[in-house]
Amino acid sequence: xxxxxxxxxxxxxxxxxxxxxxxxxxxxxxxxxxxxxxxxxxxxxxxxxxxxxxxxxxxxxxxxxxxxxxxxxxxxxxxxxxxxxxxxxxxxxxxxxxxxxxxxxxxxxxxxxxxxxxxxxxxxxxxxxxxxxxxxxxxxxxxxxxxxxxxxxxxxxxxxxxxxxxxxxxxxxxxxxxxxxxxxxxxxxxxxxxxxxxxxxxxxxxxxxxxxxxxxxxxxxxxxxxxxxxxxxxxxxxxxxxxxxxxxxxxxxxxxxxxxxxxxxxxxxxxxxxxxxxxxxxxxxxxxxxxxxxxxxxxxxxxxxxxxxxxxxxxxxxxxxxxxxxxxxxxxxxxxxxxxxxxxxxxxxxxxxxxxxxxxxxxxxxxxxxxxxxxxxxxxxxxxxxxxxxxxxxxxxxxxxxxxxxxxxxxxxxxxxxxxxxxxxxxxxxxxxxxxxxxxxxxxxxxxxxxxxxxxx
Length: 457
Ligand code: NAD
Known about the structure:
The chain is an alpha/beta fold. The protein has helices at residues 24-43, 46-62, 64-75, 79-97, 134-147, 162-174, 188-197, 210-221, 245-257, 277-289, 309-316, 352-355, 371-378, 394-403, 438-442; strands spanning 3-8, 15-21, 107-110, 113-121, 124-128, 151-155, 181-183, 203-207, 226-230, 236-239, 269-273, 325-327, 342-345, 362-368, 383-384, 387-390, 410-411, 426-427, 430-431, 444-452.
């Protein structure tokens, strides 16, 4: 029998919902249902599967107000941002609906005959998602995995499960995929781990911390499961002397403080060439002070609270003695887990604040002199997820982009994630790539079939 998980609004600390904390028998039952549903789903005509994914996209749009409100009150993110994210979820289902009839193989002439390759479904995929972008990240797993003919069991984070549970109900009511999509709620240590270990699950697509990613690899190794891991980050923005400084400082605050800094792609290290260092710091503080922190349901709000009291404590622990810290902006008094953005000026690049993933509204600004030094500093992290390069010299931009060990970089912009392009991390930021066509490789097994055409053998 399941127990109950209580869910709170981090902006008000009020109880906003309850979901079951599923037990191991329920995990077994869900996997069994998924296995049956997968063979039915994978055999449906291509057009039917395409239309099913498109119908899910339409249903997400039809429920976008409801889903955005749930996401905003559950995570504490501004409603306007939540609405954009929900529309992005619909786009994701449309993108992969469009790919279903374009999952191709190769024809390879070989001695004695012809080989063909096929991309086969893996079977049952567990999508284990984090609390910071619950619906988008769940959909980046669900949509391509379904498109490739798999069944999916989603396990949202216990802190913010409401929108994913509702998505599961909406899809269930549509009746287009049956048990090929199920949502299981509960703790990571129990439900998440059980899915990662389960012999009936073929693949785990996990997004979360690097530490949990290590446990997932261990659990998945028992049955040699396929894994895609999207993990933590400590991304750098490299700002060169020839930058368009006005544009750069205008864009800087939301590149790190968006979602109150609870973003794996947050540019939490600004590496700034010494010629523009002081001007950058001044402009960055000023543009951060212009952000509005407060009620996520107010249309003019830029930053909401942190997700929980425990997380605020963990974020605050980075503000130790001896740091030159500027508080930029004012956080509301409680209730709610508020925290104003902090800018740490020129910390030791080896200090904890400059090396660890904070996952909150704290940014470091670190000076450098040469291009080589900037690349070395950017690469001094165990992570390699995202990052930006700000310069008007195209050669310098491309040399830096090639030198930085990171999965997704942008030049004169803070873009990280596009539906059409691969996304994932170098080093301890992850294994594998999602989104774009790369997700098709991530959710299929490659099969080779040789056909003998020789007359004599
Ligand atoms: P987390 O690792 O604590 O939890 C992520 C998910 O894993 C949750 O659903 C959780 O219940 C589950 N889980 C926890 N322990 C588990 C276990 N032993 N076995 C199986 N599942 C388990 O991460 P979080 O705190 O929810 O999210 C924040 C982290 O996620 C940050 O490190 C952030 O950088 C990372 N993140 C990465 C990306 C990316 O795309 N690379 C995107 C968003 C967040």
